[in-house]
Design goal:
Layout lengths: L18 H6 L18 H32 L7 H14 L5 E5 L4 H7 L7 H4 L5 E3 L4 E5 L6 H10 L4 H8 L7 H10 L11 H39 L5 H32 L2
Parallel strand pairs: 1-3
Antiparallel strand pairs: 2-3
Bound molecules: zinc ion.
Length: 278
């Protein structure tokens, strides 16, 4: 996406960093769609069609659930007044020695961000309250001006990026997902088929492999949120009952669920890829 390459979205209604996952999960293009129960299909073909249709039903249900989570996230309430949330964000960055720039974007100031970071259009989603992100190259964390609480999660990503190679691996693994289907298909050509069921290891475990590939992202997203919640919790010592952790935890839970679902969908997508290329 323009020169913003490392973008973490808390809301996936308009996913860009997950675009490759979504692309792959375009079930409507499945050749099995609508052909379930075709006449004259052999036993094994019928079985394949049956599992393809079932996979598709599961995938569609998961997509609906993900949309529901996103909607819940969009309706989320603030855990504190905006000024307090911004103060907590600043403290969180200072305490962790981060050089990160914190930006709060709205329709009026988004052009200033576009100019400064030479990224036309990159802040539109944030400006309308539908996204927040951390960019490690620019060392920039942004959230909508109307929802500053979203930035705590992004600062969580910023902290993760300073925590050594394992954490950085978790953080960056998502950018390699685009090549996963091709890599699996190519590897699969060299895998021996089991005499028992005529399937290779990859064909048998495609779903698990797909989910496992997304697991680092799920873990890193969860950690980013936990760091944000921890900062808000510590701030209770200063702000007392002006802070209500429940809505923050709820928001971050729904955001995290969209990532868990993406992982499940990637697993299903891998399984479908294997079925389609059998
Ligand atoms: Zn995130």
């Amino acid at each position: 996406m323009l020169n913003i390459q490392q973008q973490y979205q808390i809301n996936r209604q308009q996913p860009s960093q997950n675009a490759h996952v979504q692309q792959h999960l375009s079930f409507k293009n499945s050749p099995y769609y609508g052909s379930y129960g075709a006449e004259g299909a052999s036993d094994s073909a019928a079985k394949t069609l049956g599992s393809a249709a079932l996979l598709q039903i599961i995938a569609m249900s998961l997509q609906t659930l993900s949309q529901w989570c996103s909607a819940k996230l969009m309706q989320g309430k603030a855990f504190a007044e905006n000024d307090i949330a911004r103060n907590i964000a600043k403290d969180m960055a200072v305490k962790n020695n981060l050089k990160v720039t914190l930006g709060y974007v709205d329709e009026a100031n988004k052009y200033l961000f576009e100019q400064r970071y030479n990224s036309p259009g990159a802040f539109n989603e944030v400006a309308r309250g539908a996204n927040a992100f951390f960019n490690s190259k620019l060392n920039l964390a942004v959230a909508p001006k109307s929802k500053p609480y979203l930035i705590l999660h992004e600062i969580g990503h910023a902290i993760n990026s300073t925590k050594g190679p394992v954490m950085r691996f978790l953080q960056n693994s998502r950018f390699k997902l685009a090549s996963l289907p091709t890599a699996l298909l190519i590897t699969n050509m060299f895998m021996p088929k089991s005499p028992k069921d005529g399937e290779t290891f990859i064909e048998r475990n495609a779903g698990k492999i797909g989910f496992a590939a997304f697991l680092p992202t799920i873990i890193e997203e969860g950690l980013a949120s936990l760091r944000g919640i921890k900062a808000a919790k510590q701030a209770k010592a200063v702000y007392g009952n002006k802070i209500n952790l429940a809505p923050l935890k709820k928001n971050y839970f729904f955001a995290w669920m969209t990532y868990v679902i993406s992982g499940l969908l990637l697993g299903i997508g891998m399984k479908q890829t294997m079925l389609e290329n059998k």
